[in-house]
């Protein structure tokens, strides 16, 4: 007989809350760290995993399902068939060819473009209203590729961009000043990775601009102290790769934080890769670069016109030029 006896004969309440769903494409170290963090943060009713390797995929699904007794209830499904992504509120793409030793970035990019031609169209077909969030590298170019392949409006195609760079930057500043990283507001913008741009004037601790914070705290600083922290952001990425071979936890938390802003319509401001054409004199073509953007249920709700020094704006324009040259060689 029924497992539970109902205590009254009334019809079950009609489900008022819409069923929410996130699909994660790529069940590698990054994809699984994102999936695990989404589960612990109770962000959705349903989590779907897609990968090309059926055994690895089923293994990860089962392993996550077995944690159900310790997690908020979330349906977890996995398949090599994109049909199960139907109706996703958010599709997070972490799939990507691994860079072979000595492989040029352009060659890696061309392999990833070929992969994306098989990933993005089916996602867009099964979830025509979804938000696409691209994590795979090189993230700025692959976000542009995804925008082109999906045919979506640019506000619904977001690259993880310098969100991870900025979270490492905030950690290092907080560690240097012995404050909580959540009280450090600091943005790294532009091209993700080696050529990113740290915005000094935007740094504030508990609302106090860093330059006056340092003076008040009599913490001796020179401009290169802040430059050194930006350099440490880049070096730490290489150090993690050298020591453990990949990155997972920081990217996992940073992308799950972006997912929360979308699913919970937080309208929080994150440095993410957006269509940057028209900002700061970037007008050589359609290019995605990270700028502080307001993220909500509709994707990019707006881009802040944060103050940039002439040098910072010039570095963004230089990155845009480099990326446009790479994109022109892709024949899309
Ligand atoms: O933390 C990372 N790890 C990666 C990584 C993860 C697994 S294998 C390599 C990393 C680390 C170091 C360099 C690097 N370069 C790279 C450039 C273009 C590509 F298409 C792929 C990788 N990538 C991928 C990546 O983007 C990051 S963030 C990062 C990278 C370089 C400088 C600053 C930051 Cl904040």
Summarize the structure.
With 332 residues, the chain is an alpha/beta fold. The protein is 41% helix and 20% strand. It starts with 20 loop residues before the first strand and ends with a helix.
Structural description of this entry:
- Helix content is 41%, strand content 20%.
- The chain has helices spanning 29-40, 54-65, 105-126, 139-150, 163-177, 210-216, 223-244, 249-263, 310-328; strands at 21-25, 46-50, 75-79, 90-93, 131-134, 157-159, 184-190, 196-205, 208-209, 268-275, 288-296, 299-303.
- Helix 1 (29-40) links the parallel strand 1 and strand 2.
- It is globular.
- The model has no long low-confidence stretch (mean pLDDT 93).
- It binds ligand D0V.
Give the overall pLDDT as a whole number: 93
The global form is globular
> What small molecules accompany the polymer chains?
ligand D0V
Order of helices and strands: EHEHEEHEHEHEEEHHHEEEH
Query: Which structural category fits the helices and strands?
Result: alpha/beta
Keywords:
6-stranded parallel sheet, globular, 9 helices, 3-stranded antiparallel sheet, 332 residues, binds the ligand O=C1N[C@](c2ccsc2)(c2cccc(Nc3ccc(F)cc3)n2)CC(O)=C1Sc1ccccc1Cl, 41% helix, alpha/beta
SSE layout:
Blueprint: E1 21-25, H1 29-40, E2 46-50, H2 54-65, E3 75-79, E4 90-93, H3 105-126, E5 131-134, H4 139-150, E6 157-159, H5 163-177, E7 184-190, E8 196-205, E9 208-209, H6 210-216, H7 223-244, H8 249-263, E10 268-275, E11 288-296, E12 299-303, H9 310-328
Parallel strand pairs: 1-2, 1-4, 2-3, 4-5, 5-6
Antiparallel strand pairs: 7-8, 8-9, 10-11, 11-12
Helix pairs in contact: 1-8, 3-4, 5-7, 5-8
């Amino acid at each position: 007989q029924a497992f539970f006896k109902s205590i009254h004969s009334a019809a079950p309440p009609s489900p008022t809350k819409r069923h929410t769903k996130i699909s994660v494409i790529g069940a590698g170290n990054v994809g699984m760290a994102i999936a695990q963090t989404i589960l612990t943060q109770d962000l959705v009713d349903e989590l779907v995993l897609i990968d090309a390797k059926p055994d690895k995929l089923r293994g990860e699904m089962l392993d996550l399902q077995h944690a159900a007794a310790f997690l908020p209830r979330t349906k977890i499904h996995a398949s090599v068939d994109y049909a199960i992504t139907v109706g996703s509120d958010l599709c997070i793409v972490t799939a990507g060819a691994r860079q072979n030793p000595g492989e040029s970035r352009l060659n890696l990019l061309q392999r990833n473009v070929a992969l994306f031609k098989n990933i993005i169209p089916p996602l867009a077909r099964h979830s025509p209203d979804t938000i696409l969030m691209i994590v795979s590298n090189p993230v700025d170019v692959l976000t542009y590729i995804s925008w082109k392949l999906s045919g979506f409006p640019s506000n619904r195609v977001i690259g993880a961009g310098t969100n991870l760079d900025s979270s490492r930057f905030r950690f290092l500043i907080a560690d240097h000043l012995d404050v909580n990283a959540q009280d450090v507001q600091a943005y790294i913008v532009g091209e993700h990775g080696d050529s990113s741009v740290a915005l000094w004037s935007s740094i504030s601790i508990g609302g106090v601009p860093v330059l006056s914070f340092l003076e008040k705290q009599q913490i001796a600083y020179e401009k290169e102290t802040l430059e050194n922290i930006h350099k440490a952001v880049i070096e730490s990425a290489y150090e993690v790769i050298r020591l453990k071979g990949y990155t997972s936890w920081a990217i996992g938390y940073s992308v799950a934080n972006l997912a929360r802003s979308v699913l919970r319509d937080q309208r929080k401001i994150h440095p993410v890769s957006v269509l940057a054409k028209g900002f700061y004199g970037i007008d050589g073509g359609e290019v995605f670069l990270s700028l502080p953007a307001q993220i909500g249920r509709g994707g990019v709700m707006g881009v802040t016109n944060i103050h940039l020094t002439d040098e910072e704006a010039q570095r963004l324009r230089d990155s845009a030029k480099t990326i446009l040259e790479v994109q022109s060689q892709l024949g899309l």
